[in-house]
Amino acid sequence: MATDPSLVPDSIEWRLAPAAVDYPTAMEAMEARAAAIRDSGAPELVWLLEHPPLYTAGTSADVRELIDPRFPVFKSGRGGRYTYHGPGQRIGYVMLDLAERGRDVRAYVHALESWVIAALSEVGIHAYAVPDRIGIWTKDGGMEAKIGAIGVRVKRWVTMHGFSVNLSPNLNDFGGIVPCGLAEFPVTSAAALGKMVTPATFDAALALSMPTFLEYVEKPTRF
Questions:
Q1: Is there a contact between 89 and 169 (Cβ–Cβ < 8 Å)?
Q2: Active site residue: 48, 180, 190, 207, which one?
């Protein structure tokens, strides 16, 4: 599956990182782009990438859930608790101007969840959101397991951060934290479910689902 560039509006830059991006560099670039969108009308951005192994702490992080800081730990301005990023995980940083798209943060978060779920469906994985529980969920061996995380920040109506999806990470690397504060649920991946999904294939699935994602952002009455 190859990305069809015609599915991405001209007003949105679609950026694919060719190599792992360290976390501070990504955060600095994201902050700068979000400010440029708000202050000077820079194009919106969807940035798809990987990070080297690390943990991030969201604004609700509880230090008791940092069990083994075996990787660098970074404070993050996004919502949520601790999460892991590393090789084999596809991360999407999404910078959209909600001032031009309805100013509905809740609708945006639901749209982001639906976008990831639709992309997973395109690669043969049934996933879903659960009310009042963070993340993207699926069934692994009959048990509910988390395959993706959502964490966002909105500053002056411009979105930052976004989602991460486990394609083929080392799931043992999640063992240093309580992922998103949900100790009772395991994490899983496309590979653990028997689906070998490359970053390029998943990127193409995201692009295919992008028009519907943007429609959901702009028409929150759909939820």
A1: yes
A2: 180
